[in-house]
Amino acid sequence: MTDTDRELDPALRELSDWAGDAPPLSPAARHRMRGRLLAVADGRRRRLWQRPGLRIAASGLVTAALTATVLVVVRDDPGTSTARQTVRPVSARTVLAGAAAYEREHPRAVPTTPPRDDQFVYTKEIIKETDRKTGRTVTHVDENWRSVDGSQRSWVMEVGKGWWAPPLKKNESVWPPQDWTRLEKLPTDPEKLILSLLHKTGPNDRNDSLDEITEQEWSEIHFSLAGLLKLVPVMPEGLRPAAFEALGMVPGVKTVQDQKDAKGRTGVAVTYDDPTLPKGVSGYGGYFIFDPKTYEFLGFRDGRTSGDGPGMKKYTQLSYLDGWAITDRAKQRP
Which one has a higher pLDDT value, 212 or 29? Predict the structure, then answer.
């Protein structure tokens, strides 16, 4: 590795400095290094082979890389140097692998004991909604108390308005699952997680290969993964990073650069071109916005309409989770 390479690729420098006789890297360290190397690999590898519409085949820790931001340094003479920056879109799979690595390093607190079925999951969400025609922005604070297993009525809010949602009826359920018992049964391996989210249609539907997943099924899988990440603030250990990685394996996910979040930070967004929806309509969840360097998840960007006909209003929503807790009663403050 040249001095210029070491200057440009700190993640590679860190790896090269690791002593061969040192103790093996911990799982968290391996995930961290993998996420960092993904971005480096984007600028290093130019020949990648892709199975149509599905996976990327490469070697080692750099399997998920496609393209990234590359800093090119041009040295005119020994005494001077200039730099120019060439920006290329980073792949959704790279961003989501980085987000998974960040989640493993900075996991959300998991309850010491699983939430009971008779308890509630409290969330506080900040939503900044802008009228696309007038430019007027209104901030909403939505607080929800959702029954863990759906057996009790929940308090639900949307853009500042709340109502009591009735409990689930007999044989009713919600999807994606939100109760702890079902969440614990979901795999923390991303490929197995995808297969577990498929709905079997008959005794011969084995759902044991990603290659057999149809376009419609991928749309449903995206809905489930996006729903988990958007609606379930607390999950069993390892499930959230697995959901990020699995989302990156969905054909049709893509990145959009320079997206502002609700706090005014500029990030890179991941969205989904759902082939089962009209052209130009994003899949469920809208845009997931991430820090462009650390890949920390920052929040959502979505759209909303009200009314119909000539008087219909269109809004852009920027939101983030401000806090969550487990409570014993609906509307009980944490």
Answer: 212
| 249: nearest Cα among 272, 281, 283, 282 | 272
- What digits encode the pLDDT tens for the residues 195-211? 998 876 656 666 678 88
- How far is the C-alpha of 285 from the C-alpha of 303, rounded, in Å? 10
Instruction: Please report how the helices 239-247 and 215-231 are oriented relative to each other, as an axis angle in degrees rounded to 10.
Output: 140
Q: What is the DSSP letter of 181?
A: H
Query: Does the N-terminal peptide bond of residue 176 adopt cis geometry, omega within 30 degrees of 0?
Result: yes
**Quick one: which of 267, 272, 193 has its CA closest to 228?**
193
What is the end-to-end Cα distance of the chain in Å, rounded? Answer: 53
* CB contact set of 33 (below 8 Å; sequence gap of 6+): 11, 14, 15, 25, 61
Distance CA 34, CA 75 (A): 30
pLDDT tens per residue, range 254-273: 999 999 999 999 999 999 98
Structure confidence at residue 308 (pLDDT): 77
Place of tokens 């995930």: 31
User: What average pLDDT score do residues 22-38 get?
Assistant: 47
309: CB partners within 8 A, 6+ apart? none
Q: Could you say which DSSP state residue 184 is in?
A: H
pTM: 0.72
* C-alpha to C-alpha distances, 143 to 123, 154, 160, 272, 317, nearest whole angstrom: 6, 11, 9, 27, 16
CA dist., res. 179 & res. 60, Å (int):
37
- Distances in Å between the Cα of 149 and the Cα atoms of 53, 110, 120, 145, 205 are 37, 18, 9, 12, 29
Residue 273's Cβ-count burial label (10 Å; 0-12, 13-18, 19+) is middle
Q: What is the pLDDT of residues 155-189, one digit of tens each?
A: 999 999 999 999 999 888 887 788 888 899 999 99
